[in-house]
Amino acid sequence: MKRFLLFLSDYGMLVVLLVLCAVFSILTLEKQNATGADGAASLAVQINAEFEKDDPIFIAAGTSPDDAAFVDKLEEALAESGFTNVKSAAGSPPKVKTALRELENEPRGIAMSPSTSGWKIWGDLPNVRRLSPSEGFWPVFLNQQNLLSIASQISVIAIMAIGMTLVIITAGIDLSVGSLLAFTSVATAWCIEYLGAENAGVSGMIVGSLLGIFAGGLWGLFSGGMITAFRLPPFIVTLSVMLMASGLAYVWSNGTSIHDLPESYIWLGRGFVFGIPTSLILMIVLYIAAHLMMSRTALGRYIYAVGGNPEAARLSGVPVRRVLIVVYTLCGLLAGLAGVVTTSKLEAGSPTFGDLKELMVIAAVVVGGTSIAGGSGRIFGTLIGAFIISVIQTGLNLMGVTQYWQTFVLGAVILIAVLLDRMKHHLLNPNRLS
Amino acid sequence: MAWLELSQITKSFPGVLAVDDVSISVERGECLALMGENGAGKSTLIKILAGAIQPDRGEILIEGQHVQFTDPMAAQQSGIGVVYQEFNLIPDLTIRDNLFLGRDLTNRVGWLRQKEETNLAREVLEKVGLSGISLDTVCRRLNVAQQQLVEIARAFVADAKLIVMDEPTAALTNRETERLFSLVDELKTQGIAVIYISHRLEEIERVADRVAVLRDGTLVAEDNIADMNRAALIEHMVGRKMNSEFPEREDSELGKVALETINLTRGRKVREVSFSLHAGEILGLTGLVGAGRTESARLIFGADHPDSGTIELHGESIRFSSPRQAIRKGICLLTEDRKQQGLILEHSILDNFGLPNLGDFSKGPFLDVRREAVAFDQLADKIGVRESARQQIAGTLSGGNQQKVVLAKWLQRNADVLIFDEPTRGIDVGAKFEIYKLINDLAAQGKAILFISSELPETLGMCDRILVMREGEIAGEINDPKSASQVDIMKLAVHDPTLSNR
Question: Are residues A150 and A63 part of one domain?
């Protein structure tokens, strides 16, 4: 029991994530027809069994690429099995109806693509056997398309959330990450434009991206420096940096976005490696690296110590100021990297890209179980937190919940996550002194 | 009839009987001095009077009427005003706002009756001798003496009949002190009762009519000041029960000087402190709370920076900008406040143990967690912590075990100079003995040890030599603790030049 609770305390949010996925899967469970070539293949088998080889067969389809594939595949399959009298029509309902009327002899069977099976034109053909691909149940939520969209949506927020986790573990906060994302996206796009715009080479793109990331790091270094040198509250310093960086991004870009980027630049944000989105791979690599840093290096221990009790840490020989500067710089670098990924994904640099991103990032960290009071938190918890937020958003989208309600639900989820965390602490340490 | 009478007050906290069956009384226009060593029970008694805590047993009578203070407000309304050592003024509010905080004069709809407030404020400030200052001055701008007067004035706003002053002269200059004394005289003629807490004998002789001495929570003496001589007072204050035994220690040769400070000074807290500490020596540093012991240790450890003076380590002059450097050079400080400064309470024992030692456990960029655990296990055996407790959260341990974790963390450093600041505070007798033994072992290994303690029996029992601090200075040295007594130390701690003559 105790071990189970301990497991929950570390990765309880994982359970929440799985439950959410299950709920959305059930709620989005829909009748789904096999479409395109797959549907055609199964239908061909059925036709083979039910009709003679010389029966006239009519194939009806709509205008989508899926339907085109349906027609092609079915014609090919029926020809292979020896059907001789096969006609087809693809297009809008009137067009298909006209094609049907113009046939020399009324068909014995009509093969309908899934999209056409609901059409009203079939009503006046009582003697004709109509077939369409068999139906099955499958949650829309778990479609490959949807899962990929969750994954690619999440990478930008999740990458920034690594830096934010470090900052929050030191009992600080960084409000500037959204602005730094916007700033670096402008910086990167501007650099690449300068180095050749649409015709920039690979080296130009790399240099532009690195400069952008570097700029993010410099802002982080500045925040960390101000916080440690003058003992200013992180909230105030990063609020100032948020406004300064955002302002400069608008000044630099004249308030418009920079679009003149090479076509190939989207590789990072929208490309694939071995069928996996590049940005997702980047995110996973960063999470593994951050996890190793926090659990297996002296710096990681120092970060936890500074957040747990800065005075005790200092008196134990922890270089508190240096640790804080490193943490804010890392946070800036990661926000810069997120900016570069965003630029690549949207093929543009714009001062508006970062709007409200910092709040989403903080939400991911908090939902992931990192305490705002500092001293505790897990890197992979943050990843789970980011997933939870993304899953809720896409799940609600699929169910047709409006954006306004989504915002409300998101707020409620953050509150519930923090409450759960509180209760968990009570459960584990019922007689803690503090 | 006495204005205030405390009758058989008893208060215990888990493990400590803080105040045991104490009965004292104060009359109108009288100043009662309350004396006692650190931890004698003065603070607890004051908190009971102020309504901050409730006694387990006993009665409080005001003008013969039984009263019960459920909260500080109730005590104030009964006419008791307390001026704590740490002021309770809100620094960013004006004098006027501070005076009326929590008892604003308002009309029926809640508007402040500013004119009445101003008049009353002028009146009370004049009473305490703080006229001629604008009521709109922000309290942050006042000096310590002025802030103290505002605190006293606050008590008048609440119409106090008894004013308690806790170490009121600790931060005052001589002239300010003299002015405070005349104010106390003035209060007495107005019929106000005063309870005056101080360690300083000369002050007490100056202002008090009667004196009560607490020791280990009990009232050991109460008499008119005229009938009490200084030597007797000191005798009453010391002589706390010996509740610890000390492990045997072999006589060993002292090594070379390991640490030497020359005229170390920081503000008023540490003034021209010079001493030398030898390898293999346990040097005691004692004195009353606030005498500058901890502050001196922090200077040596690089946690604070001296205004002037030098520190020499093995004959080499050093200047640390951070504790990190001191630790690297082989100095450790076991802090007085275990929970706030010694441990990270939410983290595991092993994490706390490793913190200053991570450099030793690194392999390339990564930590060798196995080696860290093995090192802990070896020490755990020696200091008597269960190895299986490694992952336990430090905050859940008993005081003794927490202290052992702090010890383990510093032992692993294998430092040459170890400073122990109140190493046995809040620890049970059994664990105390083990810690004494460990410290003796370290000395036998040739480590230089600075042993800071408020407990006189412990200081006498453990140390080769004892330095006594008073008001930031080293007041004296006891070279042979074996033949010295607690009275000898206390004389130096509350020292005044006339003492030996009386």
Answer: no
